Amino acid sequence: MVSERACCSAGHTEVGKVREHNEDAFLDCPAQGLWVVADGMGGYERGAMASQLIVTSLADLPVTLSLDERVKAVRQCLHWINRRLSQELTVTEGHSERIMGSTVVALMLEGSRAACIWAGDSRCYLWRERRLYQLSRDHSLQQQLIEQQQMSAEQASAHPSANALTQAVGARAQLTLDMLEFTVYPGDTLLLCSDGLYQALGCETLGSALSRSTPHMALQRLFEAALCGSAQDNLTAVVIRR
User: Fold this and answer.
1) Domain layout of the chain by residue ranges
2) Which residues contact 237 (CB under 8 A, 6 or more apart)?
3) Residue of 81, 106, 183, 206 with fewest CB within 10 Å of its CB?
């Protein structure tokens, strides 16, 4: 388990300037070595319920000493939530307006070991030695067009359904989770965020914010920059400093 002495973190969410309600949710638990961002979909009540179900269920997982055990527990929990949302709470697959689901990106730390699990287009970034790395790979039609059709990012983004998700918790009966394991070093900064935040900011702004001396200062800069723009979507971020 990661203690608060090993890392520090901070999280925040904003409704933005256009949406009336916030369907995002986050979890900031440095004592458990667990951080999560979830971006709900399906309308306010349904999307917010889905994202909150994810963060509350993951927060209730038993605290264990093994990162491998926590990774297994998180995966099992997300598959359980997917079954509940897709089977119990979604009326029919053919009625997209009734879908109740959420993206998720979860980070677990134990000493120098880290694991990131995700579904959807909420992202995990690493800021290391003044360079920004996107660790997660979007589960979106845009990313699929880039990888399978060899389109450029500009060409893929022009597709009318570019933002459509290919994976999300609750969106379909079968959930596929991606996972990345990596090593973290002192001074590394990690960012979990919903698409509303990173779409509002370029890589340069993200890196500039993450270079601030504390997670709270990084968050302040991220949201100041995002809210200076159109902020058409909900904005959520968790910053972790090793």
Assistant:
1) 8-136+168-241
2) 11, 12, 13, 26, 37, 191, 192, 193, 194, 197, 219, 222, 223
3) 183
> Which tokens in the block code for residue 62?
């038993």
Record the pTM: 0.91
Taking a C-beta distance cutoff of 8 angstroms, is the pair 6, 34 a contact?
no
Task: Please tell me whether residue 131 adopts helix, strand or coil conformation.
Answer: strand
d(CA 62, CA 241): 24
Quick one: fold of 8-136+168-241?
Phosphatase 2c; domain 1 (3.60.40)
DSSP string, 2-43: --TTT-EEEEEEE--SS-SS--EEEEEEGGGTEEEEEEEESS
pLDDT tens column, 120-135:
999 999 999 999 999 9
Cα gap 196→234, rounded to integer Å: 6
Q: Name the band, by pLDDT with cuts 50, 70 and 90, for residue 171.
A: confident
E strand intervals along the chain? 8-14, 24-29, 34-41, 101-110, 113-119, 123-128, 131-134, 178-183, 189-193, 235-241
Q: Which of 156-160, 209-213, 221-225 has the lowest mean pLDDT?
A: 156-160
Report the 10 Å Cβ neighbour count for 129. 7
